[in-house]
Specification:
The chain crosses the membrane at residues 109-130, 142-163, 175-198, 210-231, 237-264. By secondary structure, this protein is an all-alpha fold. The protein is built from 12 helices and no strands. Helix 4 runs parallel beside helix 7. The longest helix has 33 residues, at 234-266.
Length: 283
């Protein structure tokens, strides 16, 4: 039993001096003395105590986490998710295109699958924008540079990469098919000429000159067979060569437009395409 002196001493201790230990966030209940009039302290739950004594950065972090989880602040999360998804898709398209080109070139079946090599760049451009198509083209070239060397990478860029990037960019900008076919044909023709020049440099022979000389000889033989003594000039041969090259590239690009329109429609990207009326009715 406590002595009366101890009880009187405990009675006169101010309640402000009774503090909670700093090491324990949960308040410790203090039983009210029958001799005092101070209210009884009710213990709080651990969750409430941890929130009450959390620091300001922790409160701000928990609030941001709660908003993102609850759907109040999802803009930043959606933007980060879209950027990540775009990067992953570009990397996937680049790897598939690069490996397909490398294997088809190694197995000598490039002529059978060459029409599908620009397709990943077109899909990236139409789906994510011009920068995504450019990244896919550059990533594919870097992958081919690592796997097969600079010659294969340069040939891919000249024959397929530029065509896919130009076509995808024009489709993303919703340009009409007439202008898209014209510009893509010019890009294909320039790439074909660049491919011939690169091949000429590698084999130390002017392939373009050989082509024009053979065309000149063939036309001269045909004219002589018809009884015409006129010999065409080299300027006319160059013009004829350019016309035939543009016609060949234009026909190929036109077929690529039809093929890629069908592929993108089957992939559920019909709303992103601006098709002519006859193609829209056919699909």
């Amino acid at each position: 039993m406590p002595t009366p002196a101890a009880i009187l001493h405990f009675r006169h201790v101010p309640s402000s001096l009774v503090q909670r230990p700093s090491l324990f966030p949960i308040s410790i209940p203090i039983l009210a003395s029958p001799f005092t009039n101070s209210p009884t302290l009710i213990p709080r739950s651990p969750l409430a105590a941890s929130r009450a004594y959390a620091s300001q950065p922790e409160r701000r972090l928990s609030s941001t986490h709660w908003k993102s989880e609850g759907g109040v602040d999802r803009d930043g999360g959606d933007e980060a998710f879209q950027k990540t998804l775009r990067l992953v898709e570009c990397a996937m398209f680049a790897s598939v295109s690069g490996l397909a080109y490398f294997l088809s070139n190694s197995l000598s079946i490039e002529n059978y699958f060459g029409c599908f090599f620009p397709l990943p760049i077109v899909i990236s451009s139409v789906r994510w924008g011009l920068s995504a198509g450019r990244k896919t083209m550059v990533a594919t070239a870097i992958l081919l540079l690592t796997l097969a060397g600079p010659v294969k990478a340069l040939n891919y860029l000249l024959m397929h990469g530029i065509v896919g990037f130009v076509m995808g960019s024009l489709w993303r900008l919703e340009i009409s098919w007439a202008l898209s076919i014209l510009l893509t044909t010019i890009a294909r023709a320039v790439g074909a000429c660049g491919y011939v020049l690169v091949s000429s440099f590698l084999i130390r022979e002017n392939i373009l000159s050989l082509i024009t000389i053979n065309i000149h000889a063939s036309i001269t033989y045909i004219l002589q067979a018809l009884g015409v003594s006129t010999v065409p000039t080299m300027q006319a041969i160059y013009i004829l060569f350019g016309v035939l090259l543009l016609f060949n590239c234009g026909f190929l690009v036109f077929l690529l437009h039809i093929l890629y329109a069908i592929c993108l429609t089957k992939l559920g990207m019909r709303g992103s395409l601006r098709l002519p009326s006859w193609m829209d009715k056919a699909i």
